[in-house]
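quick one before i forget lol
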Amino acid sequence: MVLATAVLLAACGTTDSTPAGPASADSLTVALSEDSGPLNIFAGQTDQLTELIYDKLLAPSPYVADPQPWLATDVRQVDATTWDVDLRDDVTWHDDEPFTADDVVFSFHFMHAAPTGRFTHHVNDTPSIAGVEATGANSVRFVCDYACPELGTVTLADLPVLPEHVWSTVDPAKAKEVTDLPVGTGPYKLVDYSPTSGYRFEANADYFAGAPTVGELVMPVISDSSAAFTALRSGQIDAVDRALTPELVDQFSASDEIGVVSTAPLTYPEVKLNYTREPFAQPDFRAALNFAVDRDQLLDVVALGRGRPATQGYVHPDAPFADPEASTPYEPQQATTLLDQLGWVDTNGDGIRENPAGEQMTFTLVVDGGDAPHVRAAELIVEDFAEAGVAVTVKPLDAGSLAEASANMDYDLYIRTNSPHAVADPTQFIMSHRSGNLWRHPDIAYPEFDALYEEWKATETNDARIAAMQKMQKLFNRQPTAIALYYPEEHWGYRADTFAGWIETPGYGIVHKWSFLPSEVVEAAKAEAPQD
């Protein structure tokens, strides 16, 4: 019990309550928020689940400043466009086939040929890998089309390695159609999956980094958060793959049976602006809305003060490449000045501005009607915009309809939560401007960004590249297509009587493979979040 508590205290930034509990378990039941299918990484997936199965060359992720060798033993930049990687020689796949350099070469070539997805931009665009070849039985060389100083710290820490002997029979164009249970090198094997019962993982006792501390993970899907937290309180499950809602934190912290861990996630809610529509296509109109948002109020009311107001805008301020001087203040007078200059004037005295043509305009903010914090945030944002004289109404949608509206850009504004991949991965920050997320390139001209992009491409060191990226951050925050609302802290609940070895790693909360590996392995990988 002393060991378990010590591990928990050392690993987590803040611990709200630390009832003693075991540091290992035969089996744990963890409720998932959604069904991700049979964990085909090309068909939409959850990083925390696929990382139980697959490993990467570096660990724990691109969201830390200094990823450590994992499947690799050494990573070296030879010149601006070339990297050499040495590999472990003691790793086997779940089906007992040996892991080799050919698997690494195959994985990168396969992702290059596969349809665009979560990982493929790391190969095809940002960076653009010209070639990968085995230079020995346990060594590989990567060559990029242009300078790629972040290949080691980002790409090699983010892309899962696939088994050639399994995926070589698959047409890359049909990669999304694969439904077989995955084969990896990771600490767990997925031994059962169904849309009704969820997932069951068994520990990989021969895992090269050390046998997992939990023998079995049973993961049913309980999409309703209230039902999931009720099951946690009653002891039907041991943990949930999502943070507690703010109003539950104090209640759960007071329990003698439930531990609560506070984490600083690399994620936050935002309002997306449809820059393909007028008047949101106008940079100053977007800037005016940005100045109109009272982020302190959003934090206090929606997150109950647990976190920070998003006054540094996009990206997350804890990302390794974030601009420490980024600023998106609440300045309602500046919002008024910009709208006046754009010709949006209240001509009839009703408090709502008409557009330059004299037309009354009302915009729609779509939101997931089942997400209570997002609905409350939407109501406050409507009030903020109304103070600036811009009329907006809230339209709740079900999750499926919201996803469809997002994919088709069929909205004026909408609220969503950004992922760590979007706001803490520096190469994704670039790619988001080229893929339709933050900008639809090259369909809509954006000469200011294009100039900074060429400056970014010409850099050859990490420091120079980050400096170029911080210029892009400043540009984006002056005329954003997404308005950050607040940077929450998260509180995760777990049954301490069954397992207390949970740790925080940046961007992943506590439900991830690092919680189920020996403490010395976690320490060597530098997977723990730093203490406050």
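fyi Confidence is low (pLDDT under 50) at residues 1-14.
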